[in-house]
Amino acid sequence: MQDLFSIQGKVALVTGGSRGIGAMIAEGFLASGAKVYINSRKADVCDATAAELNGRFDAECVSVPGDLSDLASIEAIVAKIGEGEGQLDILVNNAGATWGAPIDEFPEAGWDKVMDTNVKGIFFLTQKLLPLLRASASPESPARVINVGSVDGIKTPAFDNFSYGASKAAVHHLTRILAAHLIKENIIVNAIAPGPFPTWMLSAGVGFGGAVEGDGVDWGRVGAGNPSRRVGAMEDIAGLAIFLSSRAGQYTVGETIACDGGAVACA
Fold first, then answer.
1. Parallel, antiparallel, or unpaired for β 143-148 and 90-93?
2. Residue 212: is its pLDDT beyond 80?
3. Which of 48, 121, 244, 254 has its C-alpha lying 20 to 30 A from 147's C-alpha?
């Protein structure tokens, strides 16, 4: 029982891991003794986050930047991980994009960018990583895939982000489809649907200009509208990801679990 939630010695890839929810999950994994590859589109930001996390934890964090909306970039990321690893135990598909505009003005570019990153990127990265995930998978210790959706894929979004909510609903259903196919190969797929967390994306939406701390940033005000009276913390999202990656979550398959302080259930 003492090892029920252990991911010690596991190898994980967290996309969108340079900031926000991805960085929180990466931090929790590193603190739990996993080796973590993090990905983001901007190489300098990804490298800086990896260096910062390496300085804080007695575990290795490796930067693998690349654009997950582009298949050639996905293949380059997979090749780089394959150079250093014979297997991948945990894949967290967290990288995402959003776009906001009134319905009469919403552009095709805002639809394509969001769908390509949030849905196409998840499918093809998972597909290309299957050899490494299969190398890790066994009946006793299945490999794990965690797709990060959103409460906006469950309920009507508060913002005019038409492609974002639709893309996250697609992520939730894609999770069920992948789970049904891959459980036979001892690869467990689940999804997390986060609610409000102190991230760049939410900051931009609530008028903080993308800042997550400093003057004018009041997460207490944002959290006051949530049933739990707060926004999420690293322990909330990382704890759920660790559960889904450990022996404790081994019998949970194809689920989308809200991590939202009651935003969906208590609305």
1. parallel
2. yes
3. 48
Q: What is the 3-state secondary structure (H, E, C) of 99-160?
A: CCCCCCCCCHHHHHHHHHHHHHHHHHHHHHHHHHHHHHCCCCCCEEEEEECCHHHCCCCCCC
Expressed as residue numbers, the domain containing 65 is 11-259
User: Residues 124, 71: contact at Cβ < 8 Å?
Assistant: yes
Tell me the angle at which helices 71-84 and 121-136 cross, rounded to the nearest 10 degrees: 20
Q: Please report whether residue 168 resides in a domain.
A: yes
- Is residue 4 situated within a structural domain? no
Pairing relationship of beta strands 61-63 and 35-39 according to DSSP bridges: parallel
Name which of 143-152, 170-179, 214-223, 233-242 the model is least confident about: 214-223
What is the reported pTM? 0.96
Q: How many domains does the chain have?
A: 1
As a whole number of angstroms, the distance between CA 155 and CA 227 comes to: 15
Residue 267: the pLDDT is 77
Predicted local confidence at residue 95, as pLDDT: 96
Catalytic residue list contains 164: yes
**Active-site choice (57, 99, 162, 164):** 164
145 contacts 131 by C-beta, under 8 angstroms: no
Task: Estimate the crossing angle of helix 162-182 against helix 108-115, to 10 degrees.
Answer: 30
Which two three-digit tokens encode residue 264? Answer: 């969906």
Whether 144 contacts 88, CB under 8 Å = no
State pLDDT tens for residues 1-41: 889 999 999 999 999 999 999 999 999 999 999 999 999 99
Give strand ranges (E) for the chain.
11-15, 35-39, 61-63, 90-93, 143-148, 187-194, 256-259
Q: What is the CATH number of the domain that holds 145?
A: 3.40.50.720
Q: Is residue 267 assigned to a domain?
A: no
